[in-house]
Amino acid sequence: MSQYEPLSDEAIRQRAPRILLVDLNNEATFPTLAIGSLATPLLKAGYQIEVFSPLAYGITALSRDVEETLLNYVLTRVHFAASPLIEWANEWLLQLYYRVRFRSTRAMADAFQKVLDETAFDAILVSSYLQYHQLLITLAGQAKGANIPLLLGGPYFNQKSVTEQWIDIPGVTAIFGGEADFVLPDIVRDMVQGRDLKHHPGVFKREITVLGQAAPPAMLTDDLPIPNFDHFAWDKHPHRLIPIMAGRGCGWGHCLFCSDVTTASTRTFRSRSMASVLREIQVQSERYQSGNFIFFDSKLNSDLAMWYGLIEQFQAVVPGARWVASVHVDGKGENGLDRESLKAAYAAGLRRISFGLESGSQRLNQLMRKGTSVERMSAFVRDAHEAGISVRTTIIVGYPGETAADLDATIGFIEAHRQYFDRVKLSKFKAIPGTGFDQRLASKPHKYPSVTRFQWDYLLARARFVFRPPQLRQYRRSKARLIKLVHRINRKSLMDEAQQFNGVM
Ligand code: SF4
Q: What CA–CA distance (Å, rounded) separates 285 from 2?
């Protein structure tokens, strides 16, 4: 195998370096924002790019909500089982599921090899979620075989504990932990020229001793590049959803379980200017001939000026636009989610709203530092529904400290608001490194007597542990009731206007 031939300045002057972007993210029905955000600065700097997406070769992306079939109901019961008889198998089943679902198939490897054989790329950039570990090993091996340097990035690689597990994969030249919007062209240039990368903040290599120092958060100035989705197969998707972010991070940011506020691009809360967001909405709508937008903000009402501004101006910028967003129903003060604001949001095109109920128990919400009140969430779901907006919520099951009484409170809340909910997403509590829960468990383990055999798996940024709530039998019965109730709600048919946003948020 010959060594990689770095490009000289003269070679770059004569031919723009060719960069392959590999999309190991989870979005299937709309373009990947991360890839679009990498594409623009590279194109602006004069690079040639191509995008390779495994989703085009048989890997199905994760939907945020799956269709509620009987089989799905049974699988959910097994997944959430707390019976000692089944629980042992759960972890094994989950591992198996990951291996099968995100495996690297022969067809995928062949398709990737074909792409590498057809074009002489100068560098490969991979944006990856952690589930794709096996697949990444295969692709990186192929990159190595073709002598092409490969830079890996993704939401979790700002964390040293995670990055250390991935840094030695053969074929991975370096890992980038941070936001690449403004720095990527320079990093790539040094890469294709075979230069040392250690002066770039956030670049991790085994031999760079500063392993673990993520790049500082990017300033979201008005020259933030507008993502380019030209390489996405728009014709395959009837709803033509355009992803956008009006800000990064969460204005609340205290929920102990939350990993949204620990990832590379959302570690701190920053909002963009209203003018730049409206300009992006207009440009993208014209470019991709669509008025359907999905806001990827952790919570779009984090910046109330942005929230009200969008409500006021969206239709003036793109008449007939439809959009979907996630919000935080804060327990105190103004949160932009009063009845009149929600009616105005509907008039502005908001058709699906998602929020984290997490639990119908005020006690548990406080334990999670959720910062909300059950009373306020009650008013919110009613008002949003009555405004005509499709309401979706998420619930966490198994947060350490949860009891049967907490689950009963959640069941009571869902029952009482059943007619207002279109979709409810149940998730098993996941301990994630870097979260408030991680820090609290490390400093005050005695606060979590129901958690035993705790063990981190940094490769996938999760933990294995046993959660034993008091009154286990009663807890299990309540959990089964909750699963059944959610199953019934999720079988509801949706109003036409919300259909296009189902499964995406
Ligand atoms: S409000 Fe949402 S995004 Fe913000 S910290 Fe809580 S869970 Fe995370």
A: 46
Tokens of 290: 């669509």
Bridge partner residues of 353 (DSSP): 325, 391
Helix (H, G, I), strand (E, B) or coil at 330: coil
The protein residue with its alpha carbon nearest to ligand 1, atom 6, reads: 255
Three-state DSSP class for 262? Answer: coil
Ligand 1 contacts CB of residue 249 (under 6 A):
no
**CA-based torsion, 298, 183, 21, 132: positive or negative:** negative
Q: What kind and span of H or E run contains 334?
A: none
Q: Spell out the domain ranges in the chain.
A: 9-59+102-204, 70-97+219-224+235-499
By most ligand atoms within 8 Å of CB, the mutation choice from 245, 298, 432, 438 for ligand 1 is 298
The whole-angstrom separation of Cα 59 and Cα 481 is 33
For the CA of 358, the closest atom of ligand 1 is 7
The ipTM of this complex is 0.99
Instruction: Name the CATH superfamily, with its identifier, for domain 70-97+219-224+235-499.
Output: tm_1862 like domain (3.80.30.20)
Query: At CA 95, angle to CA 91 and CA 98, rounded to 5?
Result: 140
- Which pLDDT tens digit goes with each residue over 233-270? 887 777 789 999 999 999 999 999 999 888 888 889 99
pLDDT, tens digit (0-9, with 9 covering 90-100), for 304-355 = 999 999 999 999 999 999 999 999 998 888 999 999 999 999 999 999 999 9
Phi, psi angle pair for 86, to nearest 5°: -95, -30
Estimate to the nearest angstrom the gap between the alpha carbon of 288 and the chain centroid: 23
Show the tokens assigned to 97: 């599921």
Alpha-carbon distance of 419 to 404, in angstroms, equals 24
Strand (E) or helix (H) holding 325: strand 322-327
The angle, 0 to 180 degrees and rounded to 10, between the axes of the packed helices 304-317 and 339-347 is 30
Q: What amino acid is encoded at 333 in this protein?
A: G
Please check whether the domain covering 9-59+102-204 is classified as CATH 3.40.50.2300: yes
